[in-house]
Amino acid sequence: MKRSCFLKIKLGTFLSVLTFSISAQGPVEDFTRYVDPLIGTKEMGHTFPGACVPFGMVQLSPDTDTIPYAVNGKYTGTVYRYCAGYQYNDKTIVGFSHTHFSGTGHSDLGDFLIMPTVGQVQLNPGTADNPGSGYRSRFSHETETAEPGYYSVTLDDYKIKAELTAAIHIGFHQYTFPQSNDAHIILDMNHGIYNYDGKVLWSYIRVENDTLITGYRITSGWARTNYIYFAMVFSKPFNSYGGKDDEQLVYKGFWRKFDQEHNFPEMAGKKLKAHFDFETGNGEKIKIKFAISAVSTEGALNNLRAEIPHFDFEKVRQEAKASWQKELEKIIIDASPEKKTTFYTSLYHTFINPVQYMDVDGKYRGLDHNIHQADGFVNYSVFSLWDTYRALHPLFTLIQPERTADMINSMLGHYDQSVHKLLPVWSHFGNENWCMIGYHAVPVIADAWINGIRGFDGKRALDACVASATHRSYGNLGDYIDFGYVPYESNSVGSSMTLEYAYDDWTIARLAESLGEKDIAGKFQKRSENWKTLFDEGTGFVRAKDKNGKWKTPFDPMHTANEGFIEGNAWNYSLYVPQDIPELIRKMGGNKRFIAHIDSLFTMYMPDKYFAETEDITREGLIGCYVHGNEPSHHVAYMYNWAGQPWKTQERIHQIVNTMYLNKPDGLCGNDDCGQMSAWYIFSSLGFYPVCP
Q1: For 362-686, CATH number?
Q2: pLDDT surpassing 80 at residue 10
Q3: How far is Cα 610 from Cα 665, in angstroms, rounded to an integer?
Q4: Are 37-197+229-241+278-323 and 362-686 in the same CATH fold?
């Protein structure tokens, strides 16, 4: 059997031998057995442990609490631990919802929570301290199984075994019940991640018959206007059903003439919950196929019929496993079982996002909230570009070239539909959420084009890049264009903006150059040198300036707040000039002083006060003042190579690989950020890294 676009390597040394095309006879090793979806960050707050297929829109996973985003109008802080909905240290499960992020530092989604129960119907989730006050259940990790495409756990309070698997648009549930005359499936339309009172703008449930339910909900969260439709099918007819809207309404219209809480086939509201009631024999399985669509209920039904037209749970589970194996075997390594677990779990993380955001017929909801047809490409969403342009997308150019072209076409569709005519910044589920800084769709596009990936219009892509880089109202670009930097009084993280814009501009110059657009290339090449405007040769650091060209004082290069930087300090961010490292070395005083700077970065002590108020950094993510848990430092260990001491790069890479990626529930040193942290590990294990994509 011939396999192309594969890597085959042997781990153990820093530099590895790469073969980009190999022939293999017969089946290769089962790499899914090395993946542990329960490996995550400290206290397991930011990873996705549930069931999905590679790049699938449905990511069906357990949620372990209902911590709100705010209480009495004030941010709770605790909600940050629930960015993925699941906390390893929690003792209860609230239910299983169908959409999640993996490893993000902000959150949304958690749509359509399902929970099986027995006994009296309860339509509130209860509390962790008193699980019996609601529908949640205690659970134990001893009965929990998580593997690619499959998740299982026993809900101890109900003696129900829950099993989950998935297709691209469908979550497939299988619940094994005890004998009961009072068994239920709860559907909570109000549940969500980073939830708050009023996040659900509207929800609707329609009982089509005694096995088919359809509906939708519209939410306003990180995705400001998010439409998701569903079609839910039971393997067994229910005996009765009901629901309740907990919102206290002043106006109830003439719907009040009906008993809408018992066996009424239309339910609607902003705080809606429903239940479907069964009688079960001991060991009886009730299966649920739950399809979603951003387009319509018809789209959800079409997805359902096309992807899983049967109720064979084990067949779908094996298909999900096979889809993961197909992706995981794109890189074949020779290593110990321990290393294989870390490596293939990391590779698994890189293939969760972005997600296919369109129906089986190619229809998708665009940024303009109109319905579009993907013509000749697969439309993707969930672009955490401030993180993923660094390593995840460069990895995709090597092992996912077709998907890379589709992702770029998706970005160009976003640009066409944008009222601002901008490429995505941080987008998900048909919305731009404007998180973080830079215009980092640009390096993704340029990197793909220059590395030979076609399948998209290069000239159109260049036009979109230029438009994104010249839109004066976005991200203080007007000041950047006028001053050559973003002044501190314009934006408190203006120094970070300036450095990242300068790098992005360099990639536009390279793209324009490759397309023969010399004038554009020259303009952006000049702009790529703007980093020099903020480099203080007196201190050897990049600093913040005001509009009059004066340095911000006082200046503390270790401080992470109010010094001009985001998710970093001057010690780390001063090294962010990937497009011109030789010139950076010269400005820092030559090789000897440059190496001393990096040495100090790794060996100094950073007092707690410098990161105590930073949610996403703990001491586990630090080596000295080097912050691996945040992305701006990810290239730093490789910079010794430019200064003539590559062995120090090897030493530090080995240290990071061996201490910050461990096979345990809190084995990651920071948010995985939609696969960026894991992609760093993949590259570094192979022996190279895209310092300047």
Answers
A1: 1.20.1610.10
A2: no
A3: 26
A4: no
Is-contact 555 482, C-beta < 8 A? no
For the chain, the structural domain boundaries read 37-197+229-241+278-323, 362-686
Q: How far apart are CA 517 and CA 561, in angstroms?
A: 40
Q: What are phi and psi of 396, to 5 degrees?
A: -60, -35
Place of tokens 């084995």: 667
Question: pTM above 0.85?
Answer: yes
Q: How is 10-63 classified by DSSP, letter by letter?
A: E-SSSS----SEEE--S----GGGG--TT--SGGG-S---SB--TT-S--BEEE
CATH match for 37-197+229-241+278-323 among 2.70.98.10, 1.10.510.10, 2.70.150.10, 3.40.50.300: 2.70.98.10
The dihedral formed by the CA atoms of 481, 565, 220 and 418, expressed in degrees to the nearest 10:
20
- The predicted structure's pLDDT at residue 12: 43
Those residues with Cβ within 8 angstroms of residue 122's Cβ, 6 or more apart along the chain or in another chain: 133, 134, 135, 186
* Structure confidence by residue, pLDDT tens digits, 345-380: 999 999 999 999 999 999 999 999 999 999 999 999
Q: What is the mean pLDDT of residues 628-642?
A: 95
Strands (E), 167-259: 170-176, 180-188, 200-207, 212-219, 226-234, 240-245
pLDDT value of position 7: 61
For residue range 300-328, list pLDDT tens digits in order. 999 999 999 999 999 999 999 999 999 99
Q: Is-contact 35 348, C-beta < 8 A?
A: yes
